[in-house]
Amino acid sequence: MNRSVYCYRPMELKFNINIFLLIIIFLLISGCGIIRRAAVKQIGDTLSSEKTMAVLSSDNDPDLVWEAMPFALKTMEVMLAQDPLNDNLQLALASGYIQYTYGHLAWKARITEDIDYNKSRHLWNRVYNLSLRGRDYALSELDYRYPDFSKKVRIDTKSTLAKTSKEDVPLLYWAAAGWAGAISANKSDMENMAELPVAVAMMRRVLELDENYRDGAVHEFFIAYETGQPNANNENMKKAEMHFKKVIEYTKGKKAYPYVLFAESVAVKKQDLSLFKKLLNQALAVNVNEVKKWRLVNTIAQEQARWLQGRIPILFLDYKKDEYDR
């Protein structure tokens, strides 16, 4: 697989780090109460800090990140069991599980659908389960801030969300992302499917409170949502285009994923091959090293763009090779 930047993968180093973390966990669960709680909080806060997350997001080797992620997530779960009121860990677990499921598992599920259906179905089941796990970590912290939030938001969505503030945006975003992600991974769960309006309302609340959160990521959600409607029409396409323009504005065109998402969501829906190819070329033209915090997501998005280029004959019904590729 081509990479824009070669990255050495220190597997032995990662193995040693994992052993080190195992030793830490053992010491934490076996130490005396006061020392244990203080150490758990310090290490938990470190693992869930913005600087730690930045190390992952700035990597240019997705495989290296995904191989390390499950152990990191389980480590944080052990930390949380010892320090259950640690809101940083709750948020880190919510975002970590959902990014892992959609950056890695859902991608693997998609590319294996045509060659190994059973494996793909297994992966989609994992996406479903882990998306709900991530959602529930975010909802748990919202329940702490607003007693019975996860129950009330299902019953009286509008008034429950009206009580939330900008400080709650990260939790609202990841709860909604996990909720919607689980629904898309398993449409046979009708009870969960019926709650999609709750997830969408939470995202709309994010849009109201801080539409620039994560550099306009909420707009990416609504590109997919508007075009994913069963009877999506021109009005839905216009809304998706508005959200696309917003996220391009926020990211100054230096993030590849919006181009890939719009190509697959809108260009395919419209059967506009010229637009599709233009958008994928724009995604591939992004310099993955220019914005460090997007290095990982840009690397992944460009992999997806190359994969989609190879699926043009499948995605476009009137595709004629001689006409478009000569």
Blueprint (SSEs and pairs):
Elements: H1 11-30, H2 33-47, H3 50-57, H4 62-82, H5 87-112, H6 117-145, H7 149-155, H8 157-162, H9 169-185, H10 190-193, H11 196-210, H12 217-227, H13 234-251, H14 257-270, H15 273-285, H16 295-309, H17 312-315, H18 321-325
Helix pairs in contact: 1-2, 1-4, 2-4, 4-5, 5-6, 5-9, 6-9, 9-11, 11-12, 12-13, 12-14, 13-14, 14-15, 15-16
Describe this structure in words.
The chain is built from 18 helices and no strands. The protein is mainly α. The protein has a domain of 110 residues: Serine Threonine Protein Phosphatase 5, Tetratricopeptide repeat (Alpha Horseshoe). Helix 2 packs antiparallel against helix 4 and helix 9 packs antiparallel against helix 11. The longest helix has 29 residues. It starts with 10 loop residues before the first helix and ends with a helix. The N terminus is likely disordered.
Name a few traits of the molecule:
326 residues; Serine Threonine Protein Phosphatase 5, Tetratricopeptide repeat; 0% strand
Number of helices: 18
- CATH-defined superfamily of the domain at 217-326: TRAP transporter T-component
**Terminal CA distance:** 25 Å
**Which radius of gyration do the C-alpha atoms yield?**
21 Å
Average predicted confidence as pLDDT: 85
E-strand count: 0
Structural class: mainly alpha
Described by the principal axes of the CA atoms, the overall outline is globular
Largest sheet: none
Helix share of residues? over 70%
Query: What is the CATH third-level topology name of the domain at 217-326?
Result: Serine Threonine Protein Phosphatase 5, Tetratricopeptide repeat
The CATH C-level class name of the domain at 217-326: Mainly Alpha
Residues in β-strands, percent? under 5%
Which stretches are poorly predicted, pLDDT < 50 over at least 5 residues?
1-17
- Report the order of strands and helices: HHHHHHHHHHHHHHHHHH
Query: Which CATH-level-2 architecture of the domain at 217-326?
Result: Alpha Horseshoe
